[in-house]
Amino acid sequence: MQRFKNPLFCALDTGDLEKATALVDALKDTVGGFKLGLEFFCAHGPKGVEAIAKRDVPLFIDLKFHDIPNTVAGAMRSIMQLNPAILTVHAGGGLAMMRAAADSAADTASKLGVKMPWLVAVTVLTSLDAGDLDVLGIEGSTHKVVARLARLAEKAGLDGVVCAPHEISTTRSVAGQDFKLVVPGIRPRGTDAGDQKRVMTPKEAVETGATVIVVGRPITQSDDPVGAAQSIIDAISEPF
Ligand SMILES: O=c1ccn([C@@H]2O[C@H](COP(=O)(O)O)[C@@H](O)[C@H]2O)c(=O)[nH]1
């Protein structure tokens, strides 16, 4: 049995709690879950997350932890109190940091008696392209870098990675079949890419093998968020 009713997670990138809760109430029967990120968490913290969690929806808390192993292990103990379904760290924090995160999450889940969330590592942000990697002094294509970081995340015991749709096939070829591929950078045809540089349509991403697709602005900034979400679900013809 799959963990979520469908692969679509809606990113609630807002500091407005009323707007976020209204979107959850409107969309909860349509989408598979909701992603709360830095903007929401910096504005409302754990209490804001609890207000959303009360709606009994799967929550992806996307804080992309990136620090020394001891600090990330502590952050993981704290965030696990909110019973998330998915959590993120940055793969660039390295093997020891990712191992510390995985160990801390597993230990805390067992102490709290809650289900272990999927712990996934951000590889190369979807807002970056080959030119940006070059400027950062990172050698190799986005495919090579994502594959390298995915192998490292798997070795650290993580459940999967966050990658752009373009790297789904490469990542699948270097990691196990159960490895989760959480994929932002999703744009229904005709919608604005904004700051995203590596984008694909929902249908292409799911057909290529995304486990979860993350869509924010094309839904939340639409005049009809429920209609926008439903048309994404309709476009993903394969059963999840
Ligand atoms: O590489 C990454 C990692 C995370 N994200 C997050 O996904 C959503 C995408 O929102 P859109 O409005 O659909 O662009 C957003 O919350 C990001 O923080 C990402 O885009 N890329």
From TrEMBL:
Residues 7-232 form the Orotidine 5'-phosphate decarboxylase domain. PROSITE patterns: OMPDECASE. Pathway: Pyrimidine metabolism; UMP biosynthesis via de novo pathway; UMP from orotate: step 2/2. Its EC number is 4.1.1.23. SUPFAM superfamilies: Ribulose-phoshate binding barrel (SSF51366). SMART domains: OMPdecase. Coiled coil: none annotated. One of its GO terms (biological process) is 'de novo' pyrimidine nucleobase biosynthetic process. It is an enzyme of class 4 (lyase). It catalyses: orotidine 5'-phosphate + H(+) = UMP + CO2. Homodimer. Catalyzes the decarboxylation of orotidine 5'-monophosphate (OMP) to uridine 5'-monophosphate (UMP). This is Orotidine 5'-phosphate decarboxylase. The gene is pyrF.
